[in-house]
C-alpha cells in the first residue's frame, strides 16, 4: 500500500479525480524535497546559518551582550529592492556588529486581518494570479541570496505546510500575533531547530504567548506532511529557544517600562525566563512607521538603566518611508503592506543605538 502511494508522481496526482467540492479546486505544487533539490543550500552556507542561529541564541540567553536587531521590510515584494536593502544592511552590519546583531526580515507570508495580498510566496506577480509554485521558488531564491550576503534571515512562519520549503535558510522566525494561540503553530515550532519569537496577541494578551512557549518547549506528535508531500505523523523534540515579542495591542503599546515589568511578571508566573524582544512597529508605534526610532530609544534607555532582559528589537524598514497601495504603478523601495521606516532614518537610528551602547 505504502509502495503504491509513494510511487505516485506529481503527474499521476493531477490525473486522480479527487471529486473536489464545488468551492475548492486544487493544483499540485512541487514538494519541499524537490524545491530544496532545485535550489540547494550548500554546505558552507548551511554552516554559516548554523553559526548565526547559535549567535542569536547567545544574545537571547544573555551570554553575548549585543542587541539583536531584526530589521527589514514588512513584506518582500520586489526582489531587486529586497536585495538592495540586503546590500545596505550588510554594509551597515560591518560598522555596528560589535554592538548589534543584525538580522534581515525576509517576510514572504502576510497574515491579514481580513483579506489582502498575502505575500510573495502566495502571489509573486502581485496580480492575484497566485502563482504559488513560482512564489515558493522566488522566496527560496531570495532567502538564499540574502544569506549569501552574510546576513541571518528572519521570517514569519504563517502556513505550517510552507515551513518545510524554507526553514533550512532561517536563523530566526516569528509566530505572529494572530497565530501565537494556535496549537498547530506551537507544534510546528516544537520541531524547529532555530530560535523562534512568539508575539503577544493583537488584543495585547501576554498569556497566549507564554502558553505558546511552554507548549513549543514540549515534544509533540502531530499530523503533518513530510518533505515528499505525503501525510505523516510528525514527532517533535521540543524547542528550548523561544521568547516573547512585545508588539503592543488594541489597548496601546507595551514597550514602556511598566508594560515590560508586566510582561516579566507574566513570564515569571509560568516559570519562563524573560528574554524580551520589542517590536518597535505595529501597535507599539500606533502603525506610524516614523515613530519607531522613538520606541527604539525608549528600549535602549531601559537597557542602559539596567534592564538586561531586553535582548532585542524589531523594526519594519524599507528603502523609503511609508507604504503604498498595491496597484499597477508601484514606487520603487516602498512597502505595499505596513508602513516602513526608510533606509536613511533606519541607518541613522541603528548607528545611534550602536554608539550609545558602545559608550555605555
Ligand atoms: O505586519 C503586517 C500587518 O500588520 C498584518 O499583516 C495585518 O495587516 P492588515 O491588517 O493590513 O490585513
Ligand atoms: C504581521 C506582523 O506582525 P504582528 O503579527 O505583530 O501583527 C509582522 O511582523 O509582519
TrEMBL record:
Pathway: Metabolic intermediate biosynthesis; chorismate biosynthesis; chorismate from D-erythrose 4-phosphate and phosphoenolpyruvate: step 1/7. Its EC number is 2.5.1.54. It comes from the Bacteria. It comes from Halopseudomonas phragmitis. The keyword Transcription regulation does not apply. Keywords: Amino-acid biosynthesis, Aromatic amino acid biosynthesis, Transferase. One of its GO terms (molecular function) is identical protein binding. Belongs to the class-I DAHP synthase family. PANTHER family: PHOSPHO-2-DEHYDRO-3-DEOXYHEPTONATE ALDOLASE DAHP SYNTHETASE, PHOSPHO-2-DEHYDRO-3-DEOXYHEPTONATE ALDOLASE, TYROSINE-INHIBITED. Signal peptide: none annotated. This is Phospho-2-dehydro-3-deoxyheptonate aldolase. One of its GO terms (cellular component) is cytoplasm. Transmembrane segments: none annotated.
